[in-house]
Specification:
Among the domains are: 931-968, no CATH class; 969-1005. It contains twelve helices and 60 strands. The chain has a 32-stranded mixed β-sheet, with no helix packed on it. An eight-stranded parallel β-sheet has the order 32-34-36-38-40-42-44-46, with no helix packed on it. A three-stranded parallel β-sheet has the order 49-53-55, with no helix packed on it. Helix 11 (938-968) crosses helix 12.
Amino acid sequence: MRAVTISFFGFLLVITATVLSFCDGNSNVLCIESERQALLQFKRHLIDRSNRLSSWVEGEDCCEWVGVFCNNFTGHVKELHLGLHSSSPDVELDDEWDGYFQSAEWDAYFRSKLGGKINPSLIELKHLSFLDLSNNDFGGRAIPEFIASLKSLTYLNLSSANFQRAIPHNLGNLSKLHYLDLGHNFFSEAKTLQWVSGLSSLQYLDLSDVDLSTATDWLPVTNKLPSLVQLHLSDCYLNNNDPSSISVNYTSLAVLNLSSNRLSSIPTWIFSLRSLVSIDLNSNAVEGVIPNGFQNISSLKFLDLSWNSFSSSSTLSWLSNLNQLQFLGLGCVGLKGNFSSAIGNLSSLTHLDVSLNGIDQEVSEIIESLSRCCLDRLESLNIASNKLSGHLPDQLGQFKNLAYLSLSGNSISGPIPFSIGKLSSLKFLYVAKNRLNATLPQSLGQLGNLEHLDVSNNMLEGNISEMFFSNLLRLTVFWASNNMLTFKPNPSWIPPFQWKSIGLGNWRLGPQFPQWLQFQRNISRLDISHAGISGVIPTWFWNLSTSFVYLNLSHNHLVGEISYLLKSRTVDLRSNLLTGPLPRPISNLEFLFLSKNLFSGSLSNILCNSSTKLEETLTILDIESNLLSGEIPDCWENYQILGVLNLGNNNLTGKIPRSLGYVGGIESLNLRNNNLFGEVPSILQHLANLLILDLSENQLTGSIPAWIGDKLLGLVVLNLRSNKFQAYIPDQICALNSLQFLDLGYNNISGAIPKCFSNLSAMATKRIDGILYVWVWEFNPNKEFYLHASLVMRGREDEYSTTLGLVIGIDLSVNSLTGDIPKELGNIKELRSLNLSGNLLTGQIPENIGNMEELESLDLSMNRLHGEIPSSFSNLNFLNHFNVSYNNLTGKIPLGTQLQSFDKLSYIGNLLCGPPITKNCSSDSETPDVRNGGSSEGRHRSKVNWLYVSMVAGFVMGFWGVVAPLFFIRSWRFAYYKKLDHIGDKLYVFWATIGIRIWKWYSML
């Protein structure tokens, strides 16, 4: 009996050991030699730049290699986990912070990708059931045909691995597959999915980014897969052309992803799938009212309808049936009005996104509704970019599980409530672009889990102490620019945090450079612009061992020379007092702003130095308003991605270099106010992407090139002011249908004003967009990608940027234009500014000029116009600058609110009468105060008449001796106005210098 018992226990021990051996991942069973050799052969054909497979060594047990899993009982290789997942950077999902990571992190990630060729030796792995090669880079190769021979596969993941060409249809032979993911590659168009029908065991299918636009069988094929639980067909060019006769039931389907397609309506068959728990239809082209059919799918836990074009009349009453819903995405779907009543029954809600809509109500009402339905569940709330108003309620602090909160881009006012400090789970807080005031509450500093905080573009004020940051040890992003806050810690303060993104623009940080920044080793984005910082940039700053993405020190009072730039994609040093030669740039620089400093010397060192490799990355180069001299280098051939070049307001000389004609992608070229001479090189006609061309205030000669109108068809601003252009205005200019501002003033142009100006449709038709943007991917806190231009309006020069699209004008002043003012100009209905002064124009003012009701500035002075001011001018209600002086106009000034508001000087030199001038139009005789000084005695009248005779004689002599030559002698007139401009510039510089000195004196007090 004892022997039997011992034998029985011995048998149990053997069984136990066997089971443990089978289950234990660290068993001593060695891998099969043939399979080890197959894996080594597979490795030899891979490119492994980061040495991920360093453990794959000859003679070692392959079951211990990284990514290799064996059957612990047989030793056969059963799984290969070579996908790149955990190694990728932890990218924040909020697009507001996309790209803030240091390039070193991304470099490390991309180096970790396996590449090369997938060797057929894998066929030796007869028992392989799991193969994951996702998120690698196989260089556009096709999926190897032999993979279909791995008959034991139940899991195959080849997603995001840069496979191309056609999907091999023999993958349909893998009948044991439960999981197939081929998404996010670059396959050619798939005309059929019939091969999928052989995958009878399939539970998970992802073909995202595969072009299925002509594969009309995708619906019936996938519908017949009996075990299918998840179907992901995102970005597959699907439309609503599915055969309506198909009966769709998807017996097991729980997850359906049809996002980023071309659906114009929601397929009605979806509403019959009562087993669905997840529906993703975001980023389609769905229009009309949001259908209430979703209320039939009461099991729904995830619903995303974001980024569609639903009608604003859509109601959300159907939400009341979805009490299991956890994720609701309604971002950018056209919601308007009140929203809070629709969410009262969503008792399971954890994530809510209704951003980018027109929800117009008190923010407290939404917070109150959410507190009634899901106070203890809500984890993520995004109501950014709506029309919310009112104050944040104290009730906000009761959402203990809230980890993500975005209220940016609304009109929320008042202080940030003290209760915010109770949100112990909060990791991301975005309240930028509101009207929040007071200061940052101390309780905000108690959020120990907070990682991202954005309170920028508000009206916060007050002093921030060092203690505020003492508990924010996990904070990596702190963006608070464009407030009125002050932060001046003790010079010896050492921050307890390591920030990656710091935005303190418009804070009061100066006058000393912030010393605490030297302890930040991970900064990728830094904005300390407009911060009142003075003096020299300290040496330690240039020695920071960090790699910037965005660096902004602009609009301070920094002085001294800079020999080189920190490594960064964007460097902004505008509006300082930096001197010396231009700093030496580094590679990978994309956006360089150095305008409004005192840099001197040549451009050649930074542009023609091949060691910097700027031509490979540079997108914006702005060095306007410095003291640069010499010629513009002729080495632009390789700057193919340059989008903006601004070298205006310097002392550059010579001709415009021909190589600029090879910068094919340029959208803004500004060479204004230099000393350039010669003709405009015809090779510039190849710059077909130009939106702004500014060559004003130089010494350029020749005629205005006709090819501008033939080739530069996208021009929005053409400024050739103050040069020496001659001849006539070419009719080809009228072909510029995008032109909004044309300035040819202060040249020697003759001939008539082209009647075809009425064809300039961008000036004649009301625009919808209103703001002109250039999509040059400048990374800055507000993602504002814009062009800017300096334009003369109302007699003064101003710089326009975000409002540039609203500036519509024509300036042909101070030339030698002749003939009548074309009546066709009256058809340019949207014109804001028209300046034809200082020419030789004759005839009458066209009546229909008064139909240009948007006109804000009209100058017709110093011509030879006659007749009356048209009565239609009384309709010009927006005029704030008006001048018809020194013509031969007669008659009564039309009565109108605007015309009577201008000074008498606007009408001087004519024979006009009526307000605002003193001459009365009531009778032919002059009033006593004009003819005889108010006296009724004849003897006095005679004396006064002689006085007038002498005045008239003096005026005639003065006019013909001084003023008249300005009309008839072009060189005198041009020199006279140039002199006036020169005197004006001198006065501006003088008073600006005095102002700076006063400011410096005041700042030292």
